Amino acid sequence: MAEAIFAIxxxxxxxxxxxxxxxxxxxxxxxxxxxxTVLALPASFPNPTDEDLEETRRLLCARKPxxxxxxxxxxxxxxxxxxxxxxxxRVIGLVHHPLFLExxxxxxxxxxxKESEERALKRxxxxxxxxxxxxxxxxxHMAVLPDKITVxxxxxxxxxxxxxxxxxxxxxxxxxxxxxKGYDVLIEALAPLKEIDWRLTIAGALDRHPQAVxxxxxxxxxxxxxxxxxxxxxxxxxxxxxxYESADLFVSASLFEGYGMVLAEAMSRGLPIVLAAGGAxxxxxxxxxxxxxxxxxxxxxxxxxxxxxxxxxxRDRLADAAWEAGRTLPTWHETARRFAAVILGLKP
Length: 348
Hints:
With 348 residues, the chain is an alpha/beta fold. It folds into 2 domains: 4-155 and 330-343, Rossmann fold; 169-326, Glycogen Phosphorylase B (Rossmann fold, 3-Layer(aba) Sandwich), CATH 3.40.50.2000. Helix content is 41%, strand content 17%. It has 14 helices and 12 strands. The protein has helices spanning 17-28, 50-61, 73-76, 81-85, 107-123, 132-141, 183-190, 210-222, 237-246, 261-268, 281-284, 298-310, 312-326, 332-343, and strands at residues 4-9, 36-41, 68-72, 91-95, 126-129, 149-151, 169-174, 198-203, 229-233, 249-252, 273-276, 290-293. The strands form 2 sheets. It has a 6-stranded parallel sheet, with helices on both faces. It has a 6-stranded parallel sheet with strand order 9-8-7-10-11-12, sandwiched between helices. Helix 7 (183-190) packs across helix 12. The two termini are 17 Å apart.
């Protein structure tokens, strides 16, 4: 029986899509004959201190012989050469999205991360990615052969169809406030639409990137939108469910997504969507379920939001398509099955 050691940096309970994916896979792998132990790596990855790198070396050297080591890409892609070269046994890398594509990184850091991630993925015996788009990026830009990669898209839990609110129109965006999420772009895009009765709720952690939070807050103040926009912060699942239930429109202005789990969650609830087609977002929510705009393009986003907010028939059409597409999304059972097959050395 193959035992998996899942090396994950930081707190597995963290409220991000990547950690949610890891949690569900860890929970379900035993159902497929794969016992799993979580190995908690330092939380400073992908920017580890020297002390944290030393602790990482110690933890990896102490792992049980013969186990399969699965390493979350948030840490794996930032491993220095000596840690990568010292890895023993079978290694599986998990890539949610390539580290060098994180928004706001200095050019030199992007180059460093791209080089270190390429070296790490070269060492891996196999790689799991969470979308077809990420597979394309890894094969085309990181010199990895397609046969070495398995796509295991995030699962989606069944959900009730959203009923919405209608007056005012409730817009929902979900995800931690980070530069990559493009919330400043979203505020700029909504600012010209004050004549429409809308309210925006952004549900996501406010402690991950203080500068990004300050930028969004400044944009809200600059446009006088304090009574229109709510930064709800990290919320418990029951509250998030209520936000989805009462939403009339879901919006993602993200500049890049490795998959876009919140898009799948919106589709599973039959919400019409406006999205910036960055990374895998366009693949996750097809054109029947969403209005697609160029990532980072404020004027295009304004136009799409105006169409969606003022055309009830359009929202209904997008919502019906999202609901139908949501019925075909993979389940977490299927995600874990594909993951387990890789660990067991079987064809997914």
